[in-house]
Amino acid sequence: MKKTINIIIKKTHSRLGPINSQKKVALGYAFNYLIPQKLAEVSTKGKLKHLKMLNEIKLKKDNQNYINNLNIKECLEQIIKIKIRKKIGQNRQIFGSITEQDIINKINQITGQLITKRQITIPNIKEVGIYNIKITIEDSIYTNIELQVLPNII
């Protein structure tokens, strides 16, 4: 009698591994715990073929997403400097502050690329000057843009 069985993992579990992966476990563990809890299902040829197809689709989608993110990075790297004018008071301090939304609007105006607030890391900007902004497009893809805050001349 078989003592192990191949299963496909359907939900995250600390001992099993990632979702949609195949693993060999004890027969009793599979039928008494994993399958009734809907954490896994029995592996068959049809299910393995379907799983392989899903993994290939996910891989193609991830590759396309990575290429799109590299294109966004190239567009953002063409920006040498962003200039924003603000009204100033004493000691070269600006009224209000520069926010992520100000930078998003300026980047969209220059390149047409849409980025989110979570992708932008800016220092606390309270004075006129030059600052570095880090834009993280993906975990491993990021770029730095120089921001110049200028006094508003009427």
UniProtKB/TrEMBL annotation:
A GO term, aspect molecular function: rRNA binding
Coiled-coil annotated residue ranges, if any: none
Presence of keyword Magnesium: no
Gene Ontology cellular component terms for the protein in this record: ribonucleoprotein complex; ribosome
PROSITE patterns to which the protein is assigned, alphabetical: RIBOSOMAL_L9
NCBIfam families on file: L9
UniProt cross-references to PANTHER family, sorted A to Z: 50S RIBOSOMAL PROTEIN L9 (PTHR21368)
Entry similarity comment: Belongs to the bacterial ribosomal protein bL9 family.
HAMAP family: Ribosomal_bL9 (MF_00503)
Identification of the protein by name: 50S ribosomal protein L9, chloroplastic
Organism: Corallina ferreyrae
